[in-house]
Write a structure and sequence with these properties.
By secondary structure, this protein is mainly alpha-helical. It is about 70% helix and about 0% strand. The protein has a single domain, classed as Four Helix Bundle (Hemerythrin (Met), subunit A) (Up-down Bundle). The two termini are about 15 Å apart.
Length: about 110
């Protein structure tokens, strides 16, 4: 059964899901940067998470990271909390889809 999440999971990347397990930590760093008003910290962390998410095919999640990266780059963090708010749930869905795809590949 396919999961429709707005994500196009890249099959060859599913085997390497372990390399993406730092995503929860990076998401927490982005949240801390927003709370602290650390625009450059937000930019750097969002950039890292954007790139790895896009490589895995989590395009909607990567788009949120891109928006946060751009806000950080501009130095204006207004609106960043709204972009960040749904990302924990999005990340859970992405990780679940990756795990499911990896299990299919292994089976």
């Amino acid at each position: 059964m396919a999961i429709k999440l707005g994500y196009q999971i890249v099959p060859c990347a599913c085997v390497g899901i372990e390399c993406h397990t730092d995503a929860p930590e990076l998401l927490a760093k982005m949240r801390t940067a927003v709370e602290a008003g650390d625009a450059d910290g937000l930019r750097q962390t969002a950039h890292s998470l954007k790139s790895s998410s896009a490589n895995l095919g989590a395009l909607e999640f990567a788009q949120h990271c891109k928006e946060l990266e751009m806000l950080g780059k501009s130095g204006e963090l207004a609106g960043s909390a709204e972009w960040l708010a749904p990302m924990q749930d999005m990340l859970a869905r992405v990780m679940g889809a990756l795990e499911q795809a990896r299990n299919k590949k292994v089976a």
